[in-house]
Amino acid sequence: MNRNLLTLLILSSLIGLTVLASEAVGIRLYDRVATNLCISLVLVLGLQVFMGNSGILSFAHMGFMGIGAYTSAVLTIPAQMKGMALPDLYPFLQGVALSPYLAIAIGGAVAAFVAAAISYPLMRLSDAAAVITSFALLVVLYTVMTHWSQVTNGPRTLFGLPKATDLNLAALVAVLALGGALAFKESATGKLLRASRDDETAAAAVGAHIPHLRWRAFILAAFFA
């Protein structure tokens, strides 16, 4: 059996066992902990897609997690609640109330789009310079989200979101993310990216466009986040 397929089956089985164990125990706290575990697993797999394959430490992905969260929140809060939850929201968004599942996917797409739009110049950096700029990007994203009160309500809380994410959904997404991360690892982009991690000069000598490879991984990692 293919090693990656075996890895996927084993780890997916562990996620499935976590779900079954939580349901068997029937304690709400355990269910919440298991759900958060699966959500965190998706974020970690996103970090693996970029950091594990490129060897470059990135702080920015927590910012992309925030972008996805706020996007899905704005798109799912019922219209009658938005006047209270987001009093300064732009008029064209006030009547929008999508399915939470669609909004989660759109949130990932928006995070990936933002990553694609702003990150390419940063992918030319390596070592300490890349780490410092990724932290600076996180600070910029945090500042924008904290002060863009029309969309995020600033530093204040949001309310009125419909409950959609349960343990089953979180586990399903975690399994899909696991499969996506393994597929990327074995793709041509993933292999070339790991080659550049081990020796940039040698990878460039065989035709690897290192900034573009990193950029692709960064976008996918932002989508996961």
Name the structural class.
mainly alpha
Order of helices and strands, N to C? HHHHHHHHHHHH
Cα(first) to Cα(last) distance is 30 Å
Task: Please give the number of β-strands.
Answer: 0
Please give a structural write-up.
With 225 residues, this protein is mostly helical. Helix content is 77%, strand content 0%. The chain is built from 12 helices and no strands. α2 runs parallel beside α9 and α3 (61-76) runs antiparallel to α6 (100-118). The longest helix has 27 residues, at 28-54. It is flat and about 60 Å long. The mean pLDDT is 90.
Short description:
This protein has 225 residues and is mainly α. It has twelve helices and no strands.
What attributes characterize this protein structure?
225 residues; mainly alpha; 12 helices; 77% helix
SSE layout and pairing:
Blueprint (H helix, E strand, L loop, with lengths): L2 H23 L2 H27 L6 H16 L2 H7 L5 H4 L5 H19 L8 H21 L1 H4 L14 H20 L1 H11 L1 H6 L4 H15 L1
Helix pairs in contact: 1-2, 1-9, 2-9, 2-10, 2-12, 3-6, 3-7, 3-12, 6-12, 10-12
